[in-house]
Amino acid sequence: MSEFFTSAVIVATVASGIRLAVPFLLASLGEMVGQRSGVLNLGVEGVMLLGAFAGYFTVLQTGNVWLGLAVGVALGTVMGVLTAVMSVTFLADQGISGIGVYLFGLGLSDLLYQRWVGTPTTIRSFSPIHVPGLSDLPYVGEALFSHNPVVYAALLLVPGALYALNHTTWGANVRATGEHPEAVDSLGVSVAAVRYSAVIIGGAMAGAAGAYLAIDLGIFQQNFTNGQGFIAVALVYFGAWRPIGVLLGSLLYGMVAATVIQLNTLGIIPSSASDLAAMTPALITVLALVFVARRFSEPTALTRPFQRGA
Amino acid sequence: MRSGRGVARQLATGLPTIVAAVGGVVVGSLMLRAFGIDPASAYRSMFDGAFGDTDALIDTTLKTVPLLLIGTGICIAFRSGAINIGGEGQMILGGLSGVAVALLLPSTPRPLLVVLVLLGGALGGGAWGAIAGALKARYSVNEILSTIMLNIVALQVMNYLLRGPWLDAAQANGLSRVPQTERLSPNADLPVLFGGGRVDAGVIIAVAMAIVAYLLLWRTNLGFRLRAVGSSPRAARTAGIRVERGIVVGMFLSGALAGLAGAIAVFGSASHRMLTDGSAAGFTGAAGYNGIVAALFGALNPLWTIVSSTLFGALLVGANKLQRTLQVSSSLVVALNGLLVVFVVSSERLRRWTRRRLDDRPGAGSTVPASSPHGAAARGAVGAERTQPARPVPSVGAP
Lengths: 310, 399
Prior knowledge:
The structure holds two protein chains of two kinds. By secondary structure, chain A is an all-alpha fold. Chain A has 13 helices and no strands. In chain A, helix 2 (about 45-60) runs parallel beside helix 4 (about 95-115). The longest helix of chain A is centred in the first third of the chain and has 30 residues, at about 5-35. Chain B contains 16 helices and two strands. Chain B has a two-stranded antiparallel sheet.
């Protein structure tokens, strides 16, 4: 165990924890906006898989990581529109339709990968930016200031989401729609339009999360996201529907994942127990769901489709 | 006996299924076209693969068994107001519990040990389901999320046991190290029916369970209470039904059927071992998810689920054939199944509208109001019942 508590290892673990938190953060922030408007989008995992393949394949073809990220976001946006059509216009059951989107993304991403790529090929990854001065600081420089630009952009989205939700008319509409859609409707604001906007943002961010994950790791494979999209949905509960809560939850999951990987690499966890260690995030999630369900209440209209006069 | 309007209403009930089936075929054809494959020949190849000869029929039967058991469980859970996405984990726990029984009591005489491993499997899966049910009933924890998380936990427990303590000694010494148990006690082998020793008693158990579940839901007091909890928790509570208990019982029964599927997958298999390939669906073949699709296609009625599971069993077997003959990954079927789910739940609105039109006609017989099982089950938390008046929609598939 003492091998773990050396400054080099701890700094490396913190740095990789922050990197691993980014996909959770991106997907959860988007999902949070959707849930605040009253729509539970359980298809995040499927959208992340599609975004991941789109990002991977674009970079494989063009070598341009930013184009890859953009294509992932674009595909996520399309999936967001489809999700909104299902859950807002067609009033589909949000729990079950999300599972449909998951299976669709799981199947289609692997189908296209098998068809168009086939053999595992690594791609270019994001390059870290060097912040003059800060990056050269001992310890802190490596842990906090040697990341790629997407990491900082994702972190900046947290105050962005706080501002958008709490200090803009759109944010007020989103929150009101999630609590009392009838009241929003009676004021002449379109509940459908508000929910469409929130759900599409969620889709775009799930696509971004998937594309980032694939490009950051430089690979893609079947079931690549491996449940991270579902955890991202749970993180919204974990964060009690607040941007800061979602940020803390994402960082916690990133750190847990990084620590497990690090302990494995150092051989502190015997390899036979690595399967057991891999269940930690899921177990934490179940406990967190119990805790949050007792302390905080979800948006009142969450999962309730709105139909005027119904 | 049945009037024209009755038939029309029956059709309206099946409408989401029909819309989904047509939509699935159309989108599937477009995807195949995009790959430069003639859809007609692809579908012919799939049909051949699933029904073409005796071997194909046997494969289809074997694929159908877990789908039917899990699909039947899904019918019970959804009707009791709990969206059980945990079929994967419950099936795994069922397999593991059955293996534990066989490893502990290997020399128990044959018929008894068979019964014990199946019971053990059902209890293990049932307990795993009941955890999520209890968390929902007691702490209002969204069961969709908790069952998905419990799937991940179950998967890792299985990978640990099959790679570690339960690893077959022959594999432990070999280089390949396939995660699998030893050949389990022959006393636990399921009786073989036909098909050159390939078709085991699992198929009879599965069909029997579907019939029992149907009778339970619509012919017993317990079933009535479960459905009451599912269609309107508030009304059920007013009527003196214990809603919390209903949710736990529904999740337990649902998990028990998935657990049974897990035990059958171990003791009915040709290898008589529990084995995986380390991937997420290595042991279950994704039956936990595909069972949901089958149940939705069967309008959450266990009897119709017998038909729909056979269809999806055939689809899975056909997909393997497609992969062999036309090199289209069988993931095509996973994607299509996802689309089918989306189509079924999205055409709910259409179904409601059609039913309302039929019911509004002068002289139309009144139907018992009950909210849609999908809609009612969607309330993540029991607490949400406050805000939920039952929607005046006839329930799906109820006779």
